[in-house]
Amino acid sequence: MSGLDTDALASLSLTHVHYNPNDPLSYLCAWLALVPQGLCVVYATLIWSTREVEIMMMFAGQMACEALNWGLKRWIKEERPRRMAGKGYGMPSSHAQFVAYFAATLALFLLLRHQPRPSPSPTHLTQPSRVSAPKSKTSSQNNHPPLSWGLRATFAGLALLGAVAVAVSRVYLRYHTPKQVAVGCAAGLACAVGWFAFTGWLRRMGVVDALLESEVVRLFRVRDLVVTEDLSEAGWERWEGRRLERRRERERERELDGFYQEKKTRAEAKSQ
């Protein structure tokens, strides 16, 4: 007889959410409860695909914020609302603290640290050729303006609104009291401001630059481009440069084909 036949079963509480199946808003709140897990997937994907030190530092602060929440819960030891059989202590709300840190850090980065520069023309990224590419609408748009401050403020506001939605959902599902959620949001905001100031100090002191110059960090291809590189243009200039170079190659091939065809026609005319 296997252990499953005799032992009591438990659920994986990481994604186990109680909600009212007859309430559409409760169902939506259940999905909002999975936002922290989804953000962890986003962190891992961006770190692996971009190797940006800014994202790594943001994730490190997120984990420090989670560690603080773990300690605060065991220090305060305040229970969850009576009508909810959630595991662990409820003060402060870990969900609220998680999303508050994420949204506040993202907003601080977009509004204060991110200083995008105008994108250079892709024609400067490739070797000049004797056959110039034909002018088109896209060539006139090479000097693409960076993401405006107003648009970055809009994205920051949407992130903060999303954090509010997740925090409110914890009260609606009765996993936390309004006080527990408010304290969680305050702790997350405090962590975000403190960590942002700390990483700014690391940059000013040259610690980040020194780490990026180390052989171990270079081995993992860690870079620091997102602070000055336009978010909407990341990698686009390189792609445009390659596309224009391929266009020049095709133009050269057509020009050579025309030259040899004309030469062949003249030779045939002389032979007649």
Structural description of this entry:
The protein is 63% helix and 0% strand. The chain is an all-alpha fold and 272 residues long. The protein is elongated, with a radius of gyration of 28 Å. Mean pLDDT is 80; it is low at 125-142.
Give a quick summary of the entry:
The chain has 272 residues and is mainly α.
Characteristics:
10 helices, 0% strand, elongated, 272 residues, single chain, mainly alpha
For the terminal residues, how far apart are their CA atoms? 98 Å
- Spell the H/E element sequence: HHHHHHHHHH
Strand-pairing-aware structural class? mainly alpha
Morphology:
elongated
What percentage of amino acids are in beta strands? under 5%
What number is the mean pLDDT? 80
Question: Number of DSSP strands?
Answer: 0
Helical coverage, percent range: 55-70%
Radius of gyration, CA atoms, in whole angstroms:
28 Å
Low-confidence blocks of residues:
125-142
Largest sheet: none
Number of helices: 10
